[in-house]
Amino acid sequence: MKENREGIKGWLNPTRYGANRFAYWLQRLTGLGLLAYFIAHVIETSNIVYGKNAWEKMLAVTQTTEGHIVLMVVIGMCVFHAANGVRLYIAEHGKGIGRPGRPEYPYKPTSLGLGMKACIWVSVALAALAMMYGAYVLFGEV
Amino acid sequence: MVRESSIMKIHYYTGLAAIVLVAIHILFRLTVPEGYSASLEYENVIANYKNISYSLVLELILVTVAIHGFNGLRVILLELRQGDGWESAVKWLCIAGAVAVIVYGTRTILLASMMG
Amino acid sequence: MAKRVKIRVFRYNPAHDTDARYDEFEVEAERWTTVLDALLYIKAHKDHSIALRYSCRMASCGSCGMLINGIPRLACYTKVYELGSDVVTCRPLPNFPIIRDLAADFTAFFAKHKSMKPYIINEVAESIDGREFIQKPEEVEKYLQFSYCIKCGLCYAACPTVATDRRFPGPQALAQMYRYLIDSRDKATDERLRIVDDRHGVWRCHFAGSCSMVCPKGVDPALGIQLLRAYLLGMNRDSKVVAELYRREPK
Questions:
Q1: CATH architecture type of domain A9-140
Q2: pTM here?
Q3: ipTM topping 0.85
Q4: Where are the beta strands (DSSP E) in C122-205?
Q5: Could you tell me what percent of chain C has a pLDDT over 70?
Q6: Is residue C250 one of the residues assigned to a domain?
Q7: Which of the listed residues C68, C102, C198, C238 has the most CB atoms within 10 Å of its CB?
Q8: CA–CA gap between residue B6 and residue A133 (Å, rounded)
Q9: pLDDT band at residue C240, thresholds of 50, 70 and 90?
């Protein structure tokens, strides 16, 4: 029998099941992106131990327009991942997701209520604001 | 064997701790009066490393983010494929990755804090 | 007013076919025509060889789940009109092996449900001679919602973890675990928590909420799973008091 599992396509498409699924997708992508940045950041900053020249050489590569854009994306990823992570921490401890009751048509799930949706969009908005502030700081000095 | 709930509790707490610690780390870049670029100048960065409290914050960031990040990667990889060989390889790969990053970053913090 | 719609039906017989294909049929749909009505019309008048599973036609049996225009839905519970499209594409539920065409194999799904021990575990039991557990309405409400599950598999088809993790029990099974865990007649709390506190257990849910989005009965499996995890994390432990057995006095 053909197995018919959705596979990785199942979680790569964020458009089908509403805000929570979108948040799940973005949390994963930002998590992977932040891990990659974290490793790269630990490596780039290690140049400090090789003296002033090595440090300034590294700055010449990273403190550029491209470097600033990467950093802005990292700021956005970081803020979304943190804010949405706090939402998940609260929800996974059984808070803010409603209580079981007697379902009535049209069966709106309490766990996907307005509170959770609002938190997701606030996380996205905070990330956007942080990116704008980041752009102001990074590009403002030029 | 460590229970999954213990690992995931560590995941929660390292995540929450990282939010606070990374916020402090970023504030150190933003609160220099001469501006962000000046905060990255060699002398300023070395001065940061010589501040014991700040070095401690950096070390804590290193440990918490490495554990949180590599455990997150483990979770994704476990969900991607199953099988005893794969799962064991994922576990050790993630432990080795976290340890390697922590050791390498700690070396930087120690050497930079001792530089003249 | 009736409108003509094109129904695209996924066709695949693992015994004979190397590739799947879609067969297309034009049908007249009224405002009240469900996707199941349309498929049964096609089966009766156009191509009787289409394989699909159905029974009650009223969202009670959970047999006719399928992927309709990309979302898992019950065919009997989905009106052609509400899809807002002149093309309706029917595929078998994803994450289930295909038996043939739209009929999916639920063997693994039911095995996972069974592995959650979906029954009351208690050394004492109610009996017909008048011994019974007394439950307050608020104790019933803790699990009642989850007991409305009809095992249609829509949540399992929508779950992004099930899509790649074949060892993950899935939203249906985990919500049922919570249903029995929080039932005051059940005494196997520790045993149940041990089952789900696994590398591929409750922790592999990331609250993507897709299960609750597609549930046709308002079970809200995502709520059950988060409450199960919260219980495992030590939250709301005092909310469960195991019921005692009372002897009903004869009237």
A1: Up-down Bundle (1.20)
A2: 0.94
A3: yes
A4: 131-133
A5: 99
A6: no
A7: C102
A8: 37
A9: confident
